[in-house]
Amino acid sequence: MDMKWNIVAFNKKYEELKNQVSQAMETVENSLEITLDSSILQNLHVDTTQKVNIVFVGQYSAGKSSIIKMLTHDADIQIGAGITTQSYTPYEWQNLEIVDTPGIQTGLREDHDAITDQAIRKADLLVFVTTPGSMNPTLLHYFNKLAYDMGKADQMILVVNKMNSAGKSDVLYQDLQEILAQPYGTYPMKPLESFRPSFISARLYLDAQEEDDKEFYDEMYQKSGYEQFVKTLDDFARDKGLLGKLRTPVRQLEDVLDQLYQIVVSADQGQSENVEQELLQKVFTIEADYKKLNRFLEDELSAATTLIHQIGNDLANDYTAETTASDWETHVKKAGDKEKKIKEALNTSIQESCQNLNREIKEILQHISKNIVADHLPSTGTESADVARATLEGMQLLKHNSDSVLKGIGEFVYSNKTFFKGRAVQRFVTANSTKFNVALGALTQVVGKIYAEHQLQEAKEKRQAIRKAYQDEAETLSKAVHEGVLKPLKNGVNDKVSELKKKISLNQLKDKETKRMTENIASLTDECQKLMDSLD
Q1: Confidence band for 107, pLDDT divided at 50, 70 and 90
Q2: Could you tell me which residue ranges the G domain spans (predicted)?
Q3: Minimal CA–CA distance to 399: which of 330, 314, 339?
Q4: pLDDT band at 194 (very low <50, low <70, confident <90, very high)
Q5: I need a surface site. Which of 375, 399, 448, 522 has the fewest CB within 10 A?
Q6: Is 58 helix (H, G, I), strand (E, B) or coil?
Q7: If DSSP codes are grouped into helix, strand and coil, which group holds residue 156?
């Protein structure tokens, strides 16, 4: 979906659907003479034009307020020692809503923890702020609780504030890698890189704004790590924020429609057979299980693509101007083994979960065919029930891509013989160092420096190409799963459930108004599904 082009059309369609659902609710209330639960109405009040909400969390005095002041240049933001933020405090930055919160689990005021917890639950994205050396067991437990227990891992980035220089310290980076790799429950631990770590000094940036000396300003600005952090945050919001913001209200509309459907059918007990009610409840169960499965597969895919990105980053980091062909072959093989395991695990997870749902669908269709006689009831044969077959065929791609991608990477890196030629030149210069020094004098040092810079630039370009290859592979995998799994599931389950909702016993309902309401709700549900598809 081209967000810049289609976002207006999406908002317009969503508002139309929301109004239609509201009208359907009024019709149900008037027809059945009931008052619907206010929580259903609350679900409708979702505005997709709201800004993506990014909440900053972390221990007190980590500099959350300073970072937000660095971003917004808001002079009213108070910063300093101790806890400065007392409440949920939103600010605007680049058409996003960024939120400051009190320190987490400060132990000083329970209301601060409650405010932060509420903000986290409402957040589209999280920025977890810490400082060098402060990721103690208590803070690590809270980080893991957010990432894994609350399922926020794919919506979080990690920021280390109060750094003395720009970029990441190798020692600190390695320490964090080891800390975040520690087991937490039974969860597979995500690598540090998946949290897009940034290493900054908001204080240096703010102090630089008061500096009149341009040389000092430039030095402080560079050391603050501001530019890289802003790019990371902007990319993070673009990659993760908008799609989540758009999908959430559509799912809420679907939930409201599901509840409406159940209310209407349940109110028709005097006009429908009990067995029909039982079967309709089974259909609702199928639909709910499918939604859980779809979300589960989305999470599994997200985790797999993140790990593939990490493999590419690690492999690129293994390649330097000093890497030998033998070492490189070993690195490539290890990367291939890791990628293969990730894809095999994803494929197994998809097969098992789809087959379980497929068996459930077959059972319900067979049960329906034995208990209900309807002229337009869908077939109960394997063709209509087997939603897993097309899925598994689509996933064959997972079994073969790894080798070809790695082969391509290996060929790219070593097809250019400049690397080996450079080694030969280096050996030649070393063997004839005396002659070169006598003949060229100081020029030898200049040539040597140029040569070294050339080697470094060549290695840098190849590392970039390696990362790009794995990014492309992750994107290919994502497309394969969406085309080969998620869409067939939607066609095989959602369409079938929608058809069953319309046809199971609806022709036998004596109340035409009930039938009309039910068909309208089913039609609106289909429209919600189409709108969700437009985001793929």
Answers
A1: low
A2: 54-162
A3: 339
A4: very high
A5: 375
A6: strand
A7: strand
d(CA 78, CA 55): 18
- Measured at the CA of 472, the angle between CA 470 and CA 474, to 5 degrees, comes to 70
Helix (H, G, I), strand (E, B) or coil at 157: strand
Structure tokens, 165: 């220089």
Burial zone of 406 (CB within 10 Å; 0-12 exposed, 13-18 middle, 19+ buried) = buried
C-beta of residue 169 within 8 angstroms of C-beta of residue 199: yes
- From residue 110, alpha-carbon distances to 64, 105, 107, 146, 199 in Å are 19, 8, 7, 18, 30
For the residues of 71-127, what is the DSSP string, one character each? HH--TT---SSS----S-EEEEETTEEEEE-PPTT-SS-HHHHHHHHHHHHH-SEEE
Q: In what order do the strands lie in the sheet with 125-130?
A: 89-93, 96-100, 53-58, 125-130, 156-160, 198-199
Beta strands at 125-130 and 53-58: parallel, antiparallel or unpaired: parallel
Tokens at 504, concatenated: 């199971």
Q: How far apart are CA 136 and CA 139, in angstroms?
A: 5
H-only helix segments in 417-511:
418-431, 433-440, 443-481, 487-489, 495-503
Q: 10 Å Cβ neighbour count for 401? A: 17
Q: Which residues, in sequence order, are bridge partners of residue 199?
A: 160
Which residues, listed in sequence order, are joined to residue 156 by a DSSP beta bridge? 126
Q: What are phi and psi of 145, to 5 degrees?
A: -60, -45
Kindly report the backbone phi and psi dihedral angles of residue 150, in degrees, each rounded to the nearest multiple of 5, phi listed first.
Answer: -95, 0
Residue 54 in contact with residue 123, Cβ under 8 Å?
Answer: yes
DSSP state of 181: T
**pLDDT (tens digit per residue) in 24-45:** 988 988 888 888 875 665 655 5
Amino acid letter, residue 498: S
Helix (H) or strand (E) holding 10: helix 3-32
CATH architecture assigned to 53-224: 3-Layer(aba) Sandwich (3.40)
Amino acid identity for residue 236 in this structure: F
Helix ranges, 149-241 (H): 170-180, 202-208, 214-224, 226-236
Contacts of 397 (CB under 8 A, 6+ apart): 476, 477, 480, 484
CA distances, 479 to each of 241, 250, 486 (Å):
19, 22, 10
Q: What is the pLDDT of residue 372?
A: 47
Could you tell me the pTM of the whole model?
A: 0.44
CA atoms within 13 A on the CB side of 238: 10
325-371 and 397-415 are packed helices; what angle lies between their axes, rounded to 10 degrees? 160
* Residues paired with 158 in a beta bridge: 128
Q: Per-domain residue ranges for the chain?
A: 53-224
The encoded tokens of residue 75 equal 């002079």
Quick: pLDDT tens for 488-528.
Answer: 777 777 677 766 666 665 545 445 777 788 889 989 988 98
From CA 282, how far away is CA 259, in angstroms rounded?
Answer: 14
**Unique residue bearing structure tokens 């097309």:** 390
